[in-house]
Amino acid sequence: MPSPVISGSPLRLALLAVTTLVLLVGLSFAATNAIAREAPLYLVAHPDVTTRWLNRDTTRAIFAMRQRTWPDGQAVRVFVLSNSHPVHARFAKEQLAVYPHQLQLAWDRMVFSGTGQAPDRVSDQTEMHERIATTPGAIGYLEREYLDDRVQVISME
């Protein structure tokens, strides 16, 4: 006579599989909804910057520290959050279409070869806002709640 544990195990495995599937689907929907609820990110600059829009390639070149001036010739001062900051990761992936570690590699190459420098790091979006608002030629990124008339939004196409 088969033991109840052995005869019940296919049923238990099926129940476990269904439960796991339901949990995974639920987590997937929760993650998707959390991403959808994230605040939009804006490319922002010092109010005296005359450039009102940038294309993705120019923006990527500025943040990779390959382009050191605005299109009108004014010097650019780039501000970024730390590589581990979720807003920095979102900006790099969504707006620049690169991963944060790719930007870091580009900065490291320039610094170590002596051909350039890394951007200025800030600790949070409040500091980012303050530094952009008070530094001529500054550029960075912020969520909507940090925007005010002390910085200008630069459109990205």
Question: Care to describe what's here?
Answer:
The structure is a single chain. Helix content is 49%, strand content 15%. With 157 residues, the protein is of the alpha/beta class. The longest helix has 34 residues, at 4-37.
The N- and C-terminal alpha carbons lie at a distance of 73 Å
The percent range for helix content is: 40-55%
Instruction: List the helices and strands in order.
Output: HEEHEHHEHEE
* Proportion in β-strands: 15-25%
How many helix segments?
Answer: 5
Going across the major beta sheet, what is the strand order?
2-6-1-5-3-4
Structural class: alpha/beta
Give the overall shape: elongated
Described by strand count, sense and barrel closure, the largest sheet is: 6 strands, mixed
**Low-confidence region ranges:** 31-36
Mean pLDDT: 87
Work out the number of β strands: 6
Write down the oligomeric state.
Answer: single chain
Features:
157 residues; 15% strand; 5 helices; 6-stranded mixed sheet; alpha/beta; elongated
Write the layout of secondary structure elements.
Layout: H1 4-37, E1 41-45, E2 53-54, H2 56-63, E3 77-80, H3 86-96, H4 100-113, E4 120-121, H5 125-134, E5 138-143, E6 152-156
Parallel strand pairs: 2-6, 3-4, 3-5
Antiparallel strand pairs: 1-5, 1-6
Overview in brief:
The chain is of the alpha/beta class and 157 residues long. It contains 5 helices and 6 strands, in the order H-E-E-H-E-H-H-E-H-E-E. The longest helix has 34 residues, at 4-37.
